[in-house]
From TrEMBL:
GO terms under biological process: cobalamin biosynthetic process
Protein name: Corrinoid adenosyltransferase
Pathway(s) where this gene product acts: Cofactor biosynthesis; adenosylcobalamin biosynthesis; adenosylcobalamin from cob(II)yrinate a,c-diamide: step 2/7
Gene3D superfamilies on file: Cobalamin adenosyltransferase-like (1.20.1200.10)
Domain of life the protein comes from: Bacteria
Record lineage: Bacteria, Bacillati, Bacillota, Bacilli, Bacillales
Family of this protein: Belongs to the Cob(I)alamin adenosyltransferase family.
UniProt catalytic activity: 2 cob(II)yrinate a,c diamide + reduced [electron-transfer flavoprotein] + 2 ATP = 2 adenosylcob(III)yrinate a,c-diamide + 2 triphosphate + oxidized [electron-transfer flavoprotein] + 3 H(+); 2 cob(II)alamin + reduced [electron-transfer flavoprotein] + 2 ATP = 2 adenosylcob(III)alamin + 2 triphosphate + oxidized [electron-transfer flavoprotein] + 3 H(+)
Length: 191
C-alpha cells in the first residue's frame, strides 16, 4: 500500500462519505484532535519511561484511543451514523480528575505550566485540547455533531491539568506558582 494518493494535491481531502477542502471547519476540528493525540502520545511515552508514572501512561493510552474515536465521529460527511465516543468516557475522565486532584496539594494561586518535563508535556496537551475544543464548537455552530465529543474535550483539558499536577507529585517536583497571582482559589472548593 502506498502512503500517497495524490488526491489532496489540489487542496481537497476525503471524509467518510465525501470530499471537502482541507480548510473546512470539520477538517480543522478533527485535525486538531489528531494533533492533540500526537502530543498525548509524547506525554504517554514520557510517563511510561518512569515507574512512578506508569499508571498515568496507561490512562493516556486509553485517552489516545478515545481521541481517535472523537476524530472519527467528526469525520463523517453527513450525520446519521453510530457514534463511537459516549458519556461513559466523560464520566471516567471525571473519576480520574478527582483522583489526581486529591493526590496534589490544594491550589491557592495560579500555577505556571511545567515543573517536571512530563508535567510540561501534559500542559502542552491541555492547551492543544482547548484549541481542539474551540474548533469543535465552531463545527457545532455549522452542523450537528456528537455532543459527547465536545463534553469529552472540555473534561479532557481539566484532566490534563490535574494529571500534570499529579505527575509533579509522583516525580517529587513542586508546581511553579505564578508570582503575581492573588489567592484566587481561597475559599473555593476544588472540584
Amino acid at each position: 500500500m502506498k502512503l500517497y494518493t495524490r488526491g489532496g494535491d489540489k487542496g481537497m481531502t476525503s471524509l467518510i462519505g465525501g470530499r471537502v477542502m482541507k480548510t473546512d471547519t470539520k477538517v480543522e476540528a478533527y485535525g486538531t484532535i489528531d494533533e492533540l493525540n500526537s502530543f498525548v502520545g509524547l506525554a504517554a511515552a514520557k510517563a511510561a519511561a518512569v515507574e512512578a508514572t506508569q499508571p498515568l501512561a496507561e490512562q493516556l493510552y486509553d485517552i489516545m484511543q478515545e481521541l481517535f474515536d472523537a476524530g472519527a465521529d467528526l469525520a463523517y460527511a453527513s450525520p446519521g451514523h453510530p457514534y463511537k465516543l459516549n458519556e461513559a468516557a466523560v464520566s471516567r475522565l471525571e473519576q480520574w480528575i478527582d483522583e489526581h486532584t486529591a493526590a496534589a496539594p490544594e491550589l491557592s494561586k495560579f500555577i505556571l505550566p511545567g515543573g517536571s518535563e512530563l508535567s510540561a508535556a501534559l500542559h502542552i496537551c491541555r492547551t492543544v485540547c482547548r484549541r481542539a475544543e474551540r474548533r469543535t464548537v465552531a463545527l457545532l455552530q455549522q452542523e450537528e455533531i456528537n455532543q459527547s465529543v465536545l463534553a469529552y474535550l472540555n473534561r479532557l483539558s481539566d484532566y490534563l491539568f490535574a494529571a500534570a499536577r499529579a505527575a509533579n507529585v509522583c516525580l517529587g517536583v513542586e508546581d511553579t506558582q505564578y508570582i503575581r497571582s492573588a489567592n484566587v482559589f481561597k475559599g473555593k472548593k476544588q472540584e
